[in-house]
Amino acid sequence: MRDVAVVGFAQRQMEEFDGSPTCVEMLVPLFAECYEQTGWTRKDVGFWCSGSSDYLAGRSFSFVQAVDAIGVTPPVNESHVEMDLAWAMYEAWIKIQTGEVDTALVYAFGKSSAGVLRRTLAMQLEPYTMTPLWPDTVSLAGLQARAGIDAGVWDETAMAEVVHRSLGDAERNEYAVRKGASSVEELLARPMYADPLRKHDCAPVTDGAAAIVLAAGDRARDVRDKPAWISGLAHNVDPMSMGTRDLTRSPSAAAAAAGADVDGVEVAELHAPFSHQELVLRRELGLADDVAINPSGGPLSGNPMFSAGGIRIGEAARKIWSGEAAKTLGHATSGPALQQNLVCTMEGRA
């Protein structure tokens, strides 16, 4: 296996695009930031891969327009996934492992505010028996939260403690769209949104984009003194039908963690769009009590569709670059109630 590292990362998160710019207008500054971090130009990038959704954009082949942000001449080696940025990164990592390229820039974008997000995401459900019912994302998460409470696996206080910590940590994140810690008691006094969820238990609807730069071997060492070397990368999927699985568990997250080797992780950025899902992931990933969870504030402070999972990896990589941690974990999820999970561990070795 080739040594591959995360060497660049840029993001934007906002409640809605200011003036509704196109995805190209959003991505060009991110690419410029990645070029500045690495000292590269577009000619140094061996492979490009994007993540987005035509359902979210409301038009076919919406990702093709985004290619304009790269530049049309000379032609580039490019691909796309109808998934989160984290899965675009996985494809790029495989591309580098084949030896075909040594570098890659992956990016993703989404304008969640253009429609009713919780309804749009019903399109990812099982198409024969669930999608025709149009169960929305928040309601399905509420069912999952209630299942855990009724089973005694967690309670509303534990959920509020997750929110309290996340929004407090988000005060230090310039990209957070929701921040500011209240007391656990004050959070519990707020009205229900989708019982047993309150609004703060749900990630805010967020527009945004993000980009990650990968490099192999000496190309990575040329860019950073301490690259975030990918030591483990795995993803797994649970059954599509929610009626066939225990919603208080996430076997796919546990399997991905086993494939990525989470022993010794000091910081974990978890893509948990609902407060109780962080509690599920802590257990399924087998994280020790002293692991710092979502020091960026996590998705409860900002959750741009098709970028938020990759942002978790980028935030975890930054902890390696800064020397704040020797081993970190970035996690991404997709589908209802933690159906699909990707785990990426990174180390700051020489």
Features:
350 residues, eleven-stranded mixed beta sheet, globular, Peroxisomal Thiolase, Chain A, domain 1
Task: Describe the overall structure.
With 350 residues, the protein is of the alpha/beta class. It has two domains: 4-116 and 208-223, Peroxisomal Thiolase, Chain A, domain 1, CATH 3.40.47.10; 128-199 and 228-347, Thiolase/Chalcone synthase (Peroxisomal Thiolase, Chain A, domain 1), CATH 3.40.47.10. It has twelve helices and eleven strands. Strands 1, 2, 3, 4, 5, 6, 7, 8, 9, 10 and 11 form an eleven-stranded mixed sheet that branches. Helix 4 (85-97) packs across helix 12, helix 7 packs across helix 11 (275-285) and helix 10 packs across helix 11. The longest helix is centred in the N-terminal third of the chain and has 16 residues, at 23-38. The chain is globular, with a radius of gyration of 19 Å. The two termini are 17 Å apart.
Chart the SSEs and their pairings.
Blueprint: E1 4-14, H1 23-38, E2 47-51, H2 54-57, H3 62-66, E3 78-81, H4 85-97, E4 103-111, H5 117-120, H6 137-150, H7 156-169, H8 184-188, E5 205-216, H9 217-223, E6 228-237, H10 251-260, E7 267-269, H11 275-285, E8 292-293, E9 303-304, H12 308-321, E10 327-334, E11 340-347
Parallel strand pairs: 2-3, 2-4, 5-9, 7-8, 7-10
Antiparallel strand pairs: 1-5, 1-6, 4-5, 6-11, 10-11
